[in-house]
Description:
By secondary structure, the chain is of the alpha/beta class.
Amino acid sequence: MAMTAQNASGDVLSDINTTPLIDVMLVLLTLLIITLPLQTHAVKITLPQPGPPKPIPTVMLEVDFDGTPVWNGWRIDDATLDRKLSDAAHQDPQPEVHIMANRLARYNAVLKVMVMTQHHGLYKMGLIDTQAY
């Protein structure tokens, strides 16, 4: 495997012949590729049916500075909010709930509205902010 040569000035040059090593590596790589099992796992996907998409209704739920919930512009109490969230959860398709909190609203009041929304099974929820800083 080693090759020794002498140049014109009489110096001995010694190099290793890498061709057989590369040949053995390529044979082993080829055997590895052939012996690996084929990946035949299929992922089944249900594609949407063609046609116009259903419009998704939206609900604007605001939390006022004093913690009062405001449903689509109407100030309501907690019992009414609970009833409206329950009604919205039974709609098909479920509406997206856009929650907007007043800058002066307490964190606990906003969190209470978010927990009530999730408690009823409305998970399409987003926080929006249109107020200037």
